[in-house]
């Protein structure tokens, strides 16, 4: 998801995945961690970014459908951590990126990180 959309979600305290589809959100449970990866700064003409841009925890079990005019995306409440550091993916050594094609995998949407990868990303984004 582009950084502009992630920032809007952080301001609203919500997550929206897979172009507003419900399925990705339904795979998450209260207390699960969520890390957003942003390949670009904005949707259309955004500059390449390839960075982790938000970090939070699923707040509860409720999934609801928002009304944005002709768009009705499914959403979920997220407790985002404040003051995270936008972290380039290439600056963190991850199992995920050790194999060719990792970018394609991330384009598919919700990807489960290993515990070790999550810890590395968390530590990098929370570094003082």
Layout of helices and strands, plus pairs?
Elements: H1 3-12, E1 14-15, H2 23-26, E2 33-40, E3 48-65, E4 74-80, E5 87-88, H3 102-107, H4 115-126
Antiparallel strand pairs: 1-4, 2-3, 3-4, 3-5
Describe the structure.
InterPro entries: EVE_domain (IPR002740), PUA-like_sf (IPR015947). This is UPF0310 protein. The chain has about 130 residues and is of the alpha+beta class. The chain has one domain: ph1033 like fold (Roll), CATH 3.10.590. About 25% of the residues lie in helices and about 30% in strands. The chain is built from 4 helices and 5 strands, in the order H-E-H-E-E-E-E-H-H. Strands 1, 2, 3, 4 and 5 form a 5-stranded antiparallel beta sheet that branches. Strand 3 (about 50-65) and strand 4 form a beta hairpin. The longest helix has 12 residues, at about 115-125. The radius of gyration is 14 Å and the shape is globular.
What characteristics describe this protein?
about 130 residues; alpha+beta; ph1033 like fold; 5-stranded antiparallel beta sheet; 4 helices; about 30% strand
Short overview:
By secondary structure, this protein is α+β, with helices and mostly antiparallel strands. The protein contains 4 helices and 5 strands, in the order αβαββββαα. Residues 4-75 form the EVE domain.
Structural class: alpha+beta
* Mean pLDDT across residues: 94
Shape: globular
Total domains, how many? 1
Provide the CATH top-level class: Alpha Beta
CATH architecture heading: Roll
Radius of gyration over all CA atoms, rounded: 14 Å
Query: Which residues form runs of ≥5 with pLDDT under 50?
Result: none
Percent range of helical residues: 25-40%
The description of the largest β-sheet is:
5 strands, antiparallel
